[in-house]
Write a structure and sequence with these properties.
The chain is of the alpha+beta class. It is built from four helices and twelve strands; from the N terminus they run H-E-E-E-E-E-H-E-H-H-E-E-E-E-E-E. The chain is 16% helix and 40% strand. The longest helix has 8 residues. The N and C termini lie far apart (44 Å).
């Protein structure tokens, strides 16, 4: 069942400012990922922290994609994506994939890639790769919310800490002994 709440029904004083929302979200740590695609619309990738699990039956991820990013339309047209969860040591690659001045070709040249069932680029040495096919897209404000069914998971055996985004800076996970 889908249920939608009419934003006009909200009291104007109950809606936080965009800046207040962004400041609050800066305090919500998020895993740093590189989301990739390849297919007829081309090879694209971008850095994202708005990724989370939805269900394990079927295995599904939610990925929020800003409509202004150059990868938005190609991901939707290709219908596939890879979600590559970064280690703390891979933060320079995160910067490369978030740079508007880097071409897509230049972004991908900075790391080794493979692919699996969908053909989406999967980062070698990532903490984990999820190879996904898009199942459903919901438009919401400035973003498309993509529900992606996972076709393959490749979890590394590395003990490297994960890269997270917290307080508008990179941080890393702590690995218990």
């Amino acid at each position: 069942m889908n249920q939608f709440i009419d934003p006009a029904a909200l009291q104007p004083q109950s809606i936080p400012s965009s800046q207040s929302f962004r400041d609050g979200m800066a305090l919500l740590p998020g895993a740093v990922t590189i989301v990739t695609t390849d297919g007829n619309a081309g090879q694209y990738g971008f850095t994202a922290s708005a990724v989370c699990s939805v269900s394990d039956t079927p295995p599904t991820l939610l990925v929020c994609i800003n409509k202004n990013t150059s990868a938005h339309d190609p991901i939707l047209k290709n219908g596939v994506l890879g979600v590559n969860v970064l280690t703390h040591a891979q933060h320079p690659l995160s910067n490369i994939f978030s740079s508007r001045s880097k071409s897509q070709e230049a972004r991908f040249a900075h790391a080794g890639w493979s692919s699996y069932a969908t053909g989406a680029p999967l980062l070698q040495d990532a903490l984990v790769n999820f190879d996904c096919r898009i199942a459903h897209v919901v438009e919401s404000g400035s973003h498309s919310v993509v529900f992606a069914h996972i076709l393959h998971v490749n979890a590394s055996d590395t003990r490297h800490p994960g890269l997270i985004w917290f307080r508008r800076n990179y941080a890393h996970t702590h690995i218990p002994e």
